[in-house]
Amino acid sequence: MSDVLLLVDIQNDFLPGGALAVPEGDTVVPIANRLIPAFDTVIASQDWHPANHLSFAEQHPGHQAFEVTEVDGVEQILWPVHCVQNSAGASFASGLDIAGIDHVVRKGEDRRIDSYSAFYDNGHRKATGLAETLRDLDAGRLFVMGLAADVCVKYTVLDALAEGFATTLIVDGVRGVDMTPGDTETAIETMQAAGAACLTSEALLDSGR
Fold it and tell me: Which of 114, 145, 168, 182: disulfide with 197, CB 3.0–4.6 Å?
């Protein structure tokens, strides 16, 4: 069995100056770069929305970003336009060691439904193929980091656990949106309660990875 590093949505639009910036989101990039050489397999997820994605507030006249509504039967937070396919904002962070990434999973391509998790869309209607990729790799343990802790990282970890993968959150390798103060801390507690282990990148490297 192999250990796999999963980098969640380390993209320009989620870094400071981006369309949907996560506070201190850029600080996860050097951590990812330190960890990449320690793993035989590195997978990265990438938000990859069409320009008219229905999670975008501008697609809903009279609504503002960060309001909550319902889209296609699923509760939806409305976001600023972000990670539009083939845009600079959708590209991986310029400082990220993309040469060390072995496989990319794109999500959020269906206009009608958002996809926080790297495994499924928010309605669990379609899979991205990540679970099958991990099983093909005979993945033993999955180590997860990236953006944002209280949104895409959280749902990715919860789905990983539900799929039966032993999952560890790299706690210093995540940053959160914190739309409500404390959301990130609550998300980490939720992941732990679901069965995720928590480890720092330093402890991981010190363990001989």
Answer: 168
